[in-house]
Each structure stands twice: as C-alpha cells, then as structure tokens.
Amino acid sequence: MKMDLSADFDLEELDIGEISTSPIQKPEPGGMFALSKNRFLQQFHATANTDWKKRRGVRRFIKPENAQCLTPYLPDPGDTTHAIVRGDFVLAEIIPVILKKKTAETIAIATLGMSEKNAEMLAGLHARGQVQNLQIVVSHYFASVDATSTFAKVCQILGPHAPAVTRNHAKVIIIIQPPNFYTVAGSANLRSSDNIEQFAIWNDPEVADFHLNWMKELIKNKP
Known about the structure:
By secondary structure, this protein is of the alpha/beta class. The chain has one domain: Endonuclease Chain A (Endonuclease, Chain A). The chain is 24% helix and 22% strand. The protein has helices spanning 16-19, 94-99, 116-127, 140-145, 150-158, 205-220; strands at 58-62, 80-85, 104-110, 131-139, 164-166, 172-177, 180-186, 197-203. An eight-stranded mixed β-sheet has the order 1-2-8-7-6-3-4-5, with helices on both faces. A hairpin with a 2-residue loop joins strand 6 and strand 7 (180-186).
C-alpha cells in the first residue's frame, strides 16, 4: 500500500527527493564547490589500548596570556596541545613564536581574512630567509568586501605570495620545520583577537600533509 507522506512532512520546505525511497541525484552546479572532493583523516593511537596513562594526544589544556606563553606548551613530535585563549593576542603572532630564529621549509595558511600587519610579518619572514615556501588561502568574502582596501594592500605586500581566493572558511596554519611538523587549527582567523578562541596544535607529519594537500589543490587553481 502506498503511504501518504504529506501528513508527516512539510513538502513546501523539503525536496521530495529527500523523502523518497530512491533519492533523486541532482548534478552539482558548475563552480559551486572549490575542492574536487571531501577529505577525511582518521588516526588511531595504539597506546590507548595498552595503557591510557601513556596515551599520546591531548596532554595539556592551556590559557596563555599572550603568544609567548605558548612556547613551553608546543607539542613534541607525535603529541597535541589544545588551547583556549582569551583574545589578548592575534593568532598570527604564534608563527614567529614557533619559528624562533630557525627556518621553516613551508608555511601554509588558510584563513577567512588577514590584516596588513599579518602580511608584513609573513613577507618579512620570507625576505629574511626564515620561510622558504609561503602559501596562503583566503575567503572570497574577504577579497570582495575589502577588494580595494585591505585585500589589495595584502596582495601588494605579499607580491608573488599573494593569497589564493576561494570559498574558504577553514582556519589552519601549517609550519614545516623538521623534525617538527606543526598544524594549528581552530576558530580564530589570522588577525583575530579580543575574543575567546580555541585551537589545537598537532606535531605530526601525517596531519600536516593532510592539510597541505587540499591547500595545494586550491593554490594550484589560483587565477
């Protein structure tokens, strides 16, 4: 017997394909999505099955007063640090804190937006030879709203390292500095401050490669 679904669903709000026993596959509009596919990374820490006290992973919960306070909490290879910060420093300021006076093979950044000071700091690091490869992805919203002001200035400052623009809302900083492979991911944009923010720092080449790969796809397609 055929069931009457109209009593259980508001058909004005739902696509009939959503409640059909054979969902209708609709083609994606051209240019709707920036990446070719979704990506997922699953990690399993074998030590969790032997002794939870020895498990590597979340081992610190910190509230640094400023970016320099992060220094003692940078994770060792294989470890992760989770942080809650109160907004009294800009996220970009952790980059020179992590680098110290050493050189990074790569710094890759995905952010909604960035400031001129962010751009000047990154350009300065590259000019001094502390960053060999610099890659940046920003949001089309930032590029559109600040097209003739901040975004234009950022592009001018960064020159050949000007950011790729796409439908991006990810916030990730990757710093490749063997034997350390840092990935910073959380709520804050590169220029964010004056808000409570959360982020985690992984020191893991697999995590760094995972994020580098999708950023490279976007940067490769940069107009």
